[in-house]
5'-nucleotidase domain-containing protein 1 (Pygocentrus nattereri), 463 residues
Amino acid sequence: MSASGSSGTFSLQDCDVIGFDLDHTLCRYDLKETSRLIYESFAQYLVEHKGYDKDLLNLTPTAWDFCFKGLVVDLEEGYLVKLAEDGTVLRATHGTRDLSQEEIIKHYGPKREWKHFNSLNSTFTRSAKYYFYDNYFDLPGALLCARVVDVLNKLLKIFEGCEVTPDFWKDMVAAIDHNYNTSAFREDSGWYFPRVKRDPGRFLQPCSASVRRWLRGLKENGKILLLITSSHSDYCRLVCDHILGKDFEDVFDVIITNALKPGFFSLIPQQRPFRTLVNDVEDSEGLPGLEKPGWYSQGNWPHLHDLLKKMTGRVEPRVVYFGDSMRSDMFPAFSFGKWETVMIVEEMEGEGVARANPAPSQPAEKKSKFEDQAMKTPSAASQQWGSYFVDVQRDEGGEERLRLTWCSHCIHTYSTMAIPSIEAIADLPLDYKFPRFSPDKPSTTGYYPRPPDTLLKREENQS
């Protein structure tokens, strides 16, 4: 429920419960190292298990400019598109090749309409026709997907309209499952988990002292703290040990792993029961409900809501949830849970927002060739795709205007506010009043500590 009503501000002081996603929210990753590892993990699977061209394993640092959050891949034809707030195609590629404005109009019509937009925009559900890349754990797959289409074009000598076969996407999904399935960590299988287990400090960034003090302060002020992650319990434990310390379980009242978001927020009859864990193995019998705080697996929002009512003594507990994914965190928590939502938007740091408590640089012996050759971090603006927040739309007459991207519009619609990291607010008093997003306020309102450069420029042009 709303923590500050219609006042136009939001304060953590007014919340009873404060929840967090884990990856890329409470835990920050070295995006360059992690993205490179994820790409290699997926590509190795395609090459070794599915017989794909070994050239997919050869990746130059400059290729990472293509890696951009918010893209949608059309699985029927191999196009990747960047959308405006109303579904207009702002930019597009076929594989990694840019489409010209004329090609975009030829393919999508004079209004440049992407035909599946209404389905994606209203439900965020997965589809056999498209895939939305909105988090850093699958984002390198967008680059791999585009490069596979390039390979198909090269082999088939087709440079437009190459159809991505269903088998190709099945192979991509299999690569994800091979590396991320719930038993992969325990079995040391795939390429991702073994590398992170062997050298977590290369990929995970410990929480700053200010964030740890902030979490303790929330507890001391009577706030109930939740951790809700789709990661399995064994991986969650490794991450939390590294970023918070061995006593991390004392920080949270309730920990939910393998939450399978966004399904966690689904209402009856789709809900999954909570399960207890013994040595990171789920009990086969689901629980009829939650009776007490603790560490659980899977579960559903209605049963968690019942527990929070008991813990707070409120019919409608006031909950805020921090997350980085629109599909898995913001949209379902806002739409089903009716929670306040704070979106972690690392792209703000690429547009004039200073990073709070920057992570120490890697020792020279640990730096990869990608760092040495200036690999672009995936959260930075892209030469090929532009800004995450705003882009130029050119009409048939050549006239240009600045448009909000669909991702930017979703942030304003389903988030209470947006921050680049938890560090950005960790030193503020608990009763600090943040301006919140509102449809009757400028699009720059709701970002803390300041709006991204491109949004400020757009507001200046409109005033």
